[in-house]
Design goal:
- By secondary structure, the protein is α+β, with helices and mostly antiparallel strands.
- The chain folds into three domains: 1-84, no CATH class; 109-342, q2cbj1_9rhob like domain (Jelly Rolls, Sandwich), CATH 2.60.120.620; 347-423.
- It has twelve helices and twelve strands.
- The strands form two sheets. Strands 1, 2, 3, 4, 6, 7, 10 and 12 form an eight-stranded antiparallel sheet that branches. A four-stranded antiparallel sheet has the order 5-11-8-9, with no helix packed on it.
- Helix 5 (124-132) packs antiparallel against helix 6 (135-141), helix 10 (345-381) packs antiparallel against helix 11 and helix 10 (345-381) runs parallel beside helix 12.
């Protein structure tokens, strides 16, 4: 949910900021202060993702930027709660209590996983590319086997092994305590939400420091530069686990899908084109069809609206880390848009067809205008010729209008016809 869209000027809730009540009638900025460096909120007990507070801080009025962090957090929390329905607040509170109960009772096996350690987690090539932070450095380690699908090595084998071990430990704890956990989504019956047992902060840093820079370059049209929240989880496929995954789109703007292991056969991802909500069930075109084979330690990065599924894992056991990255700014702006041709394959095709129809209609009208001009010249020389040419032109124009499927194209034809008729008229 977006609560700080660039087109909104929200009245802030009445109350105090810093105890003086001076901010009671202040408004959020229309545009973010890009020069302001926001504070971090990861260490605070909050009802929303710390990244949302960091993003929202840039929209605060100038007088609020200098107040203590705790006052800014309270101020922004009041704004966020203003837009959250009561039912959502109750669900959010229950989920918070659910997480707190797990974290209070579960004993991690590898505590080093719970804080970001780039040198330990990532392969050197990936880390160097991120540190260089240029499109050239990113493309030096990334392949794009199909449009919008980016593949690269990301995790060291040791990191994959530690995370697999931690997941096994968590599943063992769940079995022993008979604790009922929430699964990652409605499609997977196995797997676990990593955010729920303490890995949320580490995954926030993974998104903010490593995935967002890539998304800013490769997915700008879907909010890649404004990713501010995530849903992190693992899925498991194989014997006594999920077998495959049906055709779907993710609830994300950008998805990171990294294979952790183990030994397995099958399980290929199949991609079938990017679609907006209106066109999600339309057919695929040959250039949109692509299959991807998982390799442990390697990741695939794609738009959440890129339709895909997973084929059956025929043997062994496969575990993947998924990070659904979301942009509240993009989601808010999307509510007011109707044209998604910058990223939806079907919208883009429809736009090109309209453009081609308009160009074709303009060319045809120009052709008939030339006929009109020639008829005018001939009529001066041989007035009797006009009598024979005029019916042909009228019949041709009538046929052209009758065979146009696009109302906008018909309008273009008539507009150009009457425009040119005024300057090169065969009736004068």
């Amino acid at each position: 949910m977006s609560l700080h869209g660039s087109d909104r000027r929200d009245e802030l809730p009445s109350g105090t900021a810093g105890g003086n009540g001076a901010a009671a009638n202040m408004r959020l900025r229309l545009n973010p202060d890009k020069e302001h460096k926001p504070e971090g909120y990861e260490d605070m007990e909050l009802d929303f993702s710390p990244n949302i507070f960091t993003s929202l801080e840039r929209y605060l009025p100038p007088s609020m930027l200098a107040v203590p962090r705790v006052d800014k957090a309270k101020f922004m929390r009041d704004i966020l709660l203003k837009y959250l329905p009561l039912g959502e607040r109750n669900r959010a509170q229950k989920h918070k209590e659910y997480r707190q109960k797990i974290i209070a009772n579960y004993q991690p096996r590898h505590r080093e996983l719970y804080s970001m350690n780039p040198a330990t987690f990532f392969v050197p090539t990936f880390l160097k590319a991120i540190n260089d932070n240029t499109e050239k450095s990113f493309r030096s380690i990334i392949s794009e086997p199909a449009p919008g699908i980016f593949v690269f090595d990301i995790f060291k084998p040791d990191f994959c092994g530690l995370l697999l071990s931690e997941i096994e430990n968590f599943e063992k704890w769940v079995t022993e305590t008979k604790f009922r956990i929430m699964r990652p989504n409605t499609m997977n019956k196995y797997g676990a939400v990593l955010d729920d047992f303490g890995l949320e902060t580490m995954l926030d840093k993974l998104m903010e420091g490593f995935i967002r820079p890539l998304s800013k370059v490769f997915f700008t049209e879907v909010g890649g530069s404004t990713l501010d929240s995530h849903h992190g989880f693992v899925v498991e496929y194989g014997k006594d686990r999920d077998v495959d995954l049906g055709f779907h789109v993710d609830d994300s703007e950008v998805t990171l899908n990294a294979c952790l292991g183990k030994q397995f056969s099958g399980g290929e991802l199949f991609f079938r084109g990017i679609r907006c909500e209106k066109h999600v069930n339309t057919g695929s075109h040959s250039e949109e069809i692509f299959d991807y084979c998982h390799v442990p330690g390697r990741a695939v990065l794609h738009r959440g609206r890129h339709r895909h599924g997973a084929r059956a894992t025929t043997s062994g056991h496969r575990v993947n880390l998924l990070l659904w990255c979301r942009s509240s700014v993009f989601r808010e702006l999307k509510r007011y848009q109707k044209d998604f041709s910058s990223w939806c394959g079907e919208c883009n095709r429809a736009k090109k067809e309209r453009q081609n129809s308009t160009i074709a209609a303009t060319r045809l009208v120009s052709l008939y205008v030339m006929q009109m001009f020639h008829a005018r010249v001939l009529s001066v020389m041989y007035k009797h010729v006009l009598i024979h040419l005029l019916p042909t032109f009228v019949i041709s124009l009538d046929w052209l209008l009758a065979n146009c499927s696009q109302p906008s194209t018909k309008g273009t034809i008539l507009l150009n016809y009457f425009k040119y008729r005024g300057t090169v008229s065969i009736f004068s």
